[in-house]
Amino acid sequence: MGKSSKDKRDAYYRLAKEQNWRARSAFKLIQIDEQFDLFEHENPEKVTRVVDLCAAPGSWSQVLSRVLIKGESFGRRAWVEKKRKEEAALATAEGTTEAGNDDDDEDMKELKPRENVKIVSIDLQPMAPLEGITTLKADITHPSTIPLLLRALDPEAYDSTSSSPSTLRQPHPVDLVISDGAPDVTGLHDLDIYIQSQLLYAALNLALGVLRPGGKFVAKIFRGRDVDLLYAQLRTVFEKVSVAKPRSSRASSLEAFIVCEGFIPPAIHDGSMGMDALKNPLFGGVAVPTTASADGNVGVEVMDIDSEAKTEPVNLTTAKTISSPGPHKENQVRMLHADTNATSTQEPISQKPVTEKFALENRWIPPFIACGDLSSWDSDASYSLPPDHVSLDPVQPPTAPPYRRALELRKEKGGAYGKTKLGAMGRA
Amino acid sequence: MDGGSSVYEKSIHLHQLVAGVKSILYSADTICLSPTHVLIAAGTVFGEVIVWSCFLEENARTNANAVGSIHHFFTGHEGSVFGVRISPEITSLPGRSTGRLLASCSDDRTVRLWDISDCERASRHDPSPYSTDGFELRSTGFGGVATDDALGMESCIASCFGHKARIWSVHFVPTKVGEQCKLSLLSRGEDATCIVWDLSWEPSGSNFGLSQVTSWNNHAGKHIWSLCMRSTAERTTVYTGGADGAVKSFELEFDEHYSVVLPNRNNCITASAGSGDSQARVDKSVKAFTYLTPNHFLTTSTRGEVQICWIGPGASADRIIHKETLFVEEDLRPFCAVSSLPEHGIALLGSAKGLIRAYNHNTKSVSVIRESGPRPLVLYALDYCRGSSSSLETLCFVTSHQEPGHLNLVIASVSEGIEPLVDSKTLALPYRFEVTSASLICDNRYLALGNTHGSLAIYRIASTESIQQPLWNRKVHSKEGISQIKSFSSLYGETGASLNYFLTCGRSGVYCIHELESQEDSCNPVAIQTIHRSNVTRTIDLEGAYIDKETQDLLLYGFHGKEFLLWNDTTQSEVARRSCGGAHRRWAFQPNQETGGGLFIWIQQNLNVLPIMGDANHTLRAGGHGREIKTMDTTQSIDRPLFATGAEDTIVRIFTPTNPEEERLWGAFKCLRVLKKHQVGLQNVRWSKHGNYLFTSGGNEEFIVWRVRSIPLFGLVTTAVQSINENIESDLRVTSFDVLEVDENEPDGGFLFCLVYSNSTLKIFHYSATVDGGHFTLLAGGNYTSNCLTEASFMLRGSSLGLLTASTDGYITFWDLTSVVRPYYTISSCLQLKQPIDSNSITPEVISCEHRYQTHSNSIKGLEVARISDAASLVIAVGDDNALTLSLLNTEFGHAEAGDAHTITIPDAHAACVTTTKILEQRQCPGTNRMQLIIASSGNDHRVKVWSVEVDMDKPGPDAIQMQGVVNRYSSVADISSVGLIREQSGETKLLICGVGMEIMHVKLP
């Protein structure tokens, strides 16, 4: 697909170039903030220390930089300011207030840089530097990333020569951990969903070691098979868990974002943070397997849960009824699962006996929240462009793919490699 | 288990021994070198290969003291390592040493080899070269990092590119242990290709050379997901499984130098010898050839020799071409035209002077049919029959005529010892008609000629006219020309003789089936209709087609660039591929119905013969789409259910469910036809009510109307009769459409379509099946907001016509089309055209939306509408927000309440995006105002759910709707896009699930 046709097919791709974002995914974070006020624009001191995992090419870090360091108005703050302006305009039109209050416009342009901002961005791929942001090139699933991250967060406190850095406590925990990480999808769905979940667990394990109580965690999630197990796991360490789908994320993709608010440090960590917590990760494949019996057996017998035997009809429970005068008279919400949308904290499922891990009660569906205005651009729609539209170059050329050498070689030999569809596939 | 109890008779115990480096690994291979030594190789996401050992204690049951020791961190791959493989023991490594190699493959498109011979000798007591537990401060990730430690210092011994996309795995081909300095490897990749590699080295010295021997691309779409091998002393059979669901195999043989020989590829024979020759040699004198039987061919040479050739038995390495000289004729030296009927063993030879000889292989006799005539630039043997008396034979052929622009149709009666009786008729060719193919069709009553520009001309055999003009002459193929014409009798034998169908092959990669109808009309005594037109999914310049007698598979052959290709169109797989210089060479192919293979001969410097084995490349399980299915619709044809699928691979397929026990090649789904015409991925497919039309839509604003019917022997025939493709440059998607039959009881009825687009517009078309063989007229258009429309559904209620659309903003919109369509149709329980539509006089009207209401917080993915009464409809919608909603919509058009809705929302109907919903059944409870519905929903959570719904019109508001979940089943199909119901004749109900793959599940409906 050419640059210009991509402009038509993908409104956010075009907007990203126009607004100087490194990637269209910047809008996803902005729209999530619009809904959840991640950056707490009214209490700026509450969000100053942020870790951005799987950051390359750096559009989320760019949002952090422009909101926290430069103090520009995006997301929730921009939305509130826009609403205020609209109300003022309405009031002016109705003559209830004096005209000529231009401050609002200024309000939106006003820079509100925050103090003591610390942003650390990590990715496997090298990333172009951003002012004020510490960038690390590392694999977030690899244990060696832990000391790298701790050192970057608190260079003074971290003494790498110390004989036992494992006793290190994080003196300055962070307020927010975000991760837009996804594997290069292979096309093998089970594998892709598994790897994405492991990536999410790796991010969560890191977050557990650096996040302050009450902190927030936002990460990309693939809404596929058994995602309800993943949701249930996340609910054990946060007060509130929602699944967010920004308008800028295509409805045709599995992608969504898990927004976890109100971090509750798990009891088994006993308040310890940093290396200790990180060395014994709680979640995912890296967690030490719990033995099922005294002889160290970790095997679990799984029953065939999908037998046809269970054919009892399932009744729904009415939760609420919303009435409106419009053509849509009444909307009655009926639940399939009683605890859907309820938030409660339980003991981490990973600590439960393995036999219970996959039980039905350990599946949970959080509320689904579409983010961004309905009036904002539709990532699934095609737009026509004005005839004089000039297609801009991407702000940042894409990271050199690992097969760059293969491309060059084929070109040399006269192959049409660069033109085949295979060249661009599989890289989300 | 807790307490050690188990529900199974025997329980499996798993113990963790040691943990390696804890990071996400993409690949691993393990072998046991000894009872106490396990060697492990692993590939990481950022391009490292880790080789380590786990040492166990001897005789220890729990192995609590197992230790791990890392031997190597191999770096160099520039992308994730998707496959690693430890070689078997090699005794002939450089320096006559014994050891093992490690092969790895990666996102960077390389296959690399590493020497891991030292690992074998390691023991638990050796200090580990790497002491990392992974917690040191060290950099991970992509990009060369200069490390001062020992990491990254070891380099590979060989590396090579080959695949066009990611490589998923690499394998060592088992070979006989010997002194050879050579190994074969196989790799499989995202490009659906399997590559055979040769790894060679010098006995002394340290240079390894890795090179590609050949590549295999026999799966549709992307990816070969699995590969395994079975080896005997002589050969290795390689089995591959693709994303298309197919399982295929190919053979690798090895010559005495341990080099790979590939049947149907490089096992070609060039040496030939006559009976008197002591040594076989390469023959460069052959000029022309033609087949006498599937095993014998006749050659003519620059020396005027006419020889019979055949391939002798023996191992492929030492097979030769046997020759036997029939006769030598001086007049055949400068020029010789040949044509034959291999099924009868008859060949015709034409000299420059127009002398035509017939050779009968059954009697090995030669007879002169014609003494002189024009130079036979055209010579096609058409038919041969042995007459009633055993000595009388009739031979029919066409050849050049004295007059340019004419042909001679010759019917010669040959009887032994008597001068042949020759009846010669003159056929007038259409203007500039260069004949490329000729065949008798329809029980030998007509002669069909094809030309270089794709035109077909038909003549009557039994004509008495002195100069016969073509009865019918029209272009049926594109300008690349017609390469072959075949009657159903030559395709299917006796059973096809009485049928008036024939097949033509076009060099553009299209084959057609035509039906000939004799008419009373004296001006147009025959009419020919193209009832089937197929684009072959592979790029092949088609040269011919035949039906395999045993399997009834359709086989096609032709050229792809400089390669000859034999393609099984039924199983969508390659039988043979051979580089031969291209179609402009002299070549001939003859299938062998006995062996399922054939012979391909061509001249490239000299005479080459490729014996094609039918079983060398085998299809164990024919597959389906190579990419995910986006849409599916079912229909019930006369004798069986059919379903059409449209996929991301731009292909539409028509399947029928089968019994896996009966159809081993197909399993539960038999693909009847592959429809290739869309340029981009499919969005929606729908059958017409009676299943005689299929409608498909996709990107690029493509919308195609297909005519589908069934004919004897060949089965389903399909043609794209008309398409809307107004703007080729457009990248708008026709995301959905709905269709209503117009004048459905008339044979020439039409359709009313509503197409919705990704730019929030919709268009209403009338389609007439008879005008110009299919014609669209735009009646109206409309614009929603800027949100992409995702679904459309007509609502014919009373004398009104409404439309519902759904969109990515979660709204359902109601449009009243009554006033727009009333000028053209009478609206009642069906649509009837008031008078024929003259598309020139119509100015499309603009329709605007009447009402809308939001049911979902994000995109609506599926919409179904059930008519409850003329006044009310049940609207079922599913969406990205995990929800299923049911709205009771007031459809009293013109009333103030029209468009009012009461909704039931189930926000947690599924755990992820709900992509599809389908009404499976709808029934009125007799004597009540209650309607019962059974609906299915499914989505990305792999769950298939069936719901029972009852709508009681006597109750107010949302309470009118009662529902229960009745089925909740897991499906292994990922990205489920569509569900459908199949009702067996036994009354059994099955759900059909399509997405990344297909599944049929028995479901008992309430």
UniProtKB/TrEMBL annotation, chain A:
It catalyses: cytidine(32)/guanosine(34) in tRNA + 2 S-adenosyl-L-methionine = 2'-O-methylcytidine(32)/2'-O-methylguanosine(34) in tRNA + 2 S-adenosyl-L-homocysteine + 2 H(+). It is an enzyme of class 2 (transferase). Residues 89-99 have a biased composition (Low complexity). Gene3D superfamilies: Vaccinia Virus protein VP39 (3.40.50.150). One of its GO terms (cellular component) is cytoplasm. It comes from the Eukaryota. Its main location: cytoplasm. S-adenosyl-L-methionine binds at residues 58, 60, 123, 139, 180. Its EC number is 2.1.1.205. GO terms for biological process: cytoplasmic translation; tRNA nucleoside ribose methylation. Pfam families: FtsJ (PF01728). Keywords: Cytoplasm, Methyltransferase, S-adenosyl-L-methionine, Transferase, tRNA processing. Residues 89-108 are annotated as: Disordered. Residues 21-263 form the Ribosomal RNA methyltransferase FtsJ domain. It is found in: Cytoplasm. The active site is at residue 220. GO terms for molecular function: tRNA (guanosine(34)-2'-O)-methyltransferase activity. Methylates the 2'-O-ribose of nucleotides at positions 32 and 34 of the tRNA anticodon loop of substrate tRNAs. Belongs to the class I-like SAM-binding methyltransferase superfamily. RNA methyltransferase RlmE family. TRM7 subfamily. This is Putative tRNA (cytidine(32)/guanosine(34)-2'-O)-methyltransferase.
TrEMBL record, chain B:
Keywords: Cytoplasm, Repeat, tRNA processing, WD repeat. InterPro entries: tRNA_Anticodon_Mtase-Reg, WD40/YVTN_repeat-like_dom_sf, WD40_repeat_CS, WD40_repeat_dom_sf, WD40_rpt. Coiled coil: none annotated. GO terms for cellular component: cytoplasm. The keyword DNA-binding does not apply. One of its GO terms (biological process) is tRNA methylation. SUPFAM superfamilies: WD40 repeat-like (SSF50978). The keyword Signal does not apply. WD repeats lie at residues 74-124, 675-710. It holds the Pfam family WD40. It is found in: Cytoplasm. Gene3D superfamilies: YVTN repeat-like/Quinoprotein amine dehydrogenase (2.130.10.10). Belongs to the WD repeat WDR6 family. PANTHER family: WD REPEAT PROTEIN, WD REPEAT-CONTAINING PROTEIN 6. This is WD40-repeat-containing domain protein. It comes from Aspergillus avenaceus.
